[in-house]
């Protein structure tokens, strides 16, 4: 919320009409943003002459999406759009909820990899495991968690359901047990595309930048931001 006095002359203020019943209002103290507050003489409802909530500006969700993709974190978004951090967080989560995963087409080649980042504090490592389709570079699915079978399996199971031609991974041992031998490939340069995507992610998303003090405070937010970046 921005502290802007409503642009109403004194004369208007004297003759302020109630928004609900059109009767005459009288001055009644001040709003927390120091704007004159009014109270209706008839229905008793308190109101302001005009409201200035930047968060309700049109197109603010679109701004959040594009600026998130340009690498702005919560606090820089809040400064840039002049809305509070809590609003940025709430809006980001709302936007992420409306985004749906893309459909997976059958018999394609995929690359799977993990990306390390931190959550809450620098000592708490977390892994983003995700898969891209080799030709379109579309991100098919992702999971956030420890570098364990459970996290990896969340991604790999959806791939296996789509009857892929091959799944390319690095040499991590877990993959051997999770992916059927016939379609699993760990050839050299097999994961070039996804390694390149890792660099994109690290560059484009503030919270994934390396050697900075920027990282996500919560898993939910990290997941929401990734969803917006991948599919928003
Ligand atoms: Zn009224």
TrEMBL record:
One GO BP: DNA transposition
Source taxon at top rank: Bacteria
Molecular functions per Gene Ontology: DNA binding; transposase activity
Stored InterPro entries: Transposase_27, Transposase_27_IS1
Annotated protein name in UniProt: IS1 family transposase
Species of the source: Moheibacter lacus
């Amino acid at each position: 919320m921005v502290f802007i006095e409503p642009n109403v002359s004194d004369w208007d203020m004297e003759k302020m009409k109630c928004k609900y019943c059109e009767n005459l209002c009288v001055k009644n103290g001040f709003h927390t943003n120091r704007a004159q507050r009014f109270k209706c003489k008839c229905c008793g409802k308190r109101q302001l002459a005009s409201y200035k909530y930047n968060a309700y500006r049109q197109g603010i969700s679109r701004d959040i999406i594009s600026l998130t993709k340009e690498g702005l974190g919560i606090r820089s978004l809040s400064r840039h759009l002049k809305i509070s951090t809590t609003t940025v967080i709430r809006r980001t989560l709302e936007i992420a909820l409306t985004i749906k995963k893309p459909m997976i087409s059958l018999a394609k080649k995929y690359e799977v990899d993990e990306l390390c980042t931190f959550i809450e504090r620098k000592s708490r490592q977390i892994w983003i495991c995700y898969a891209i389709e080799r030709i379109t570079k579309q991100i098919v699915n992702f999971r956030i968690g420890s570098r364990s079978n459970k996290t990896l399996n969340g991604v790999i199971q959806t791939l296996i359901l789509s009857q892929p031609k091959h799944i390319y991974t690095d040499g991590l041992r877990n993959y051997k047990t999770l992916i059927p031998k016939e379609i699993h490939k760990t050839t050299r340069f097999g994961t070039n595309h996804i390694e390149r995507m890792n660099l994109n992610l690290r560059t484009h998303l503030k919270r994934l930048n390396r050697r900075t003090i920027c990282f996500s405070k919560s898993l939910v937010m990290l997941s929401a931001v990734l969803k917006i970046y991948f599919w928003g």
